[in-house]
Amino acid sequence: MKYFTRIDQLDQLSQAERTELQRVTDKFPFRCNDYYLSLIDWNDPKDPIRAAIVPGLQELDTWGRLDPSDEKTYCIMPGLEHKYRSTALLLVSNVCDGICRYCFRKRVFITPQSEYLRALPAAVEYIQQHDEITNVLLTGGDPLVLKPSKLDDIIRPLREIDHVQIIRIGTKMPAFNPARIIEEPGLLEMIEKYSTDQKRLYVMTHFVHPRELTELAVRAVALLQKAGAVVANQAPLIKGVNDDPRVLAELLARLSFIGAVPYYVFQCRPALGNRAYTIPVEQGYEIVEQAKAFVSGLAKRVRFVMSHSTGKVEVIGKTGDFVYFKYHRAADDADSGRFLALASNPDACWLDDYTETISEYPAELPYRSYGPQ
Q: Which regions of 22-112 does DSSP assign to beta strands (E)?
């Protein structure tokens, strides 16, 4: 596998383009490999895979911030977050096989030495001491860039904690580099060892466009499933990549065909540089609903959500005057399931855009709310 970490290595771009885009990569790192680049139709300037991985000048827009979901608020120590009562998140890697241009954790690649877990024993001890934690999510970066032996060192002590029932691995490796899975028997053996009848390992894939579901990618997913992993897919809604309802429908349908459960479609987080990739919330809801209309019930299970600083907020409905949200999961347990009816704002790209006093949540908000108080 050949990797590219400098924009001047992309011979498919003109010299003028490479010079111009250097301004972007000086700010936000670039990384990709020859397999993923081979999926691009370089004759199409609007190619969706190109939009997902090749830098664009629009990233220099100063809209957004580096930590759009306020993850640092919930950090117990570098690389360990505990936002939801039953879930701990471990940032076990500061590297991805490719860097998505719409990434919401750009800060991990800008300051790679400060944003990932380095004190594993301390993190394991914290999880041991909190028996409410039943789920641990391994993320980063991409956990599957780690050697199987290194990943084993992380998963083994977690599996020894009785109250940890589910371990999830968030990865884009099946899309970016399926050979990493196909040609790495040690990884599959590790999954088989730790994905037991009573405690499954979950692999949360990140397919954003049907073209990523190549024969190799589908084979990689099948091998993960054969090893005992439960596979589910999470995909952000990205302008120029999957914001066409029929393209999104094809993605959802094909994921359901291969047994990679369509789990979440995320509203693109307002990370620094992400304005050009972001669809307004209400337009996004319409796109997701139109896509779901084209597919069977098994592909309709996907939820359209945003990972707000206060919790995972599901967009559940829309009328002429109101948009309806529900806290799928809240940082404050008392607000999980809380229902919100907000006045429509077609330009809103995030929950904060619906009210100027969102920082006071959950008290004294100027909208109607129903549910746990």
A: 32-33, 75-77, 80-84, 87-91
Mean pLDDT of the 38-51 span: 97
The kind and range of the H/E element at 173 are: helix 173-176
What does the domain layout of the chain look like in residue ranges? 3-60, 297-373
Closest CA to 29 of 218, 273, 284: 273
What is the rounded distance in angstroms from the CA atom of residue 191 to the CA atom of residue 203?
10
| Whole-prediction pTM | 0.93
Which tens digit of pLDDT belongs to each residue from 311-339?
999 999 999 899 999 999 999 999 999 99
Query: Cβ neighbours of residue 107 under 8 Å, at least 6 residues apart?
Result: 66, 67, 115
In whole angstroms, give the CA distance from residue 19 to residue 37: 19
Closest CA to 162 of 127, 214, 110, 113: 127
- The residues, any chain, with a CB within 8 Å of residue 197's CB and separated by 6 or more, are none
Indicate the DSSP class of residue 169. E
Beta strands in 174-333 (DSSP E): 201-205, 230-237, 261-267, 303-308, 311-318, 322-330
Count Cα atoms within 13 angstroms, Cβ side, for 352. 12
Residue type, 350: W
Q: Give the tokens for residue 343.
A: 């006045």
How many Å apart are CA 90 and CA 136, to the nearest integer?
Answer: 7
pLDDT tens digits, residue range 122-163?
A: 999 999 999 999 999 999 999 999 999 999 999 999 999 999
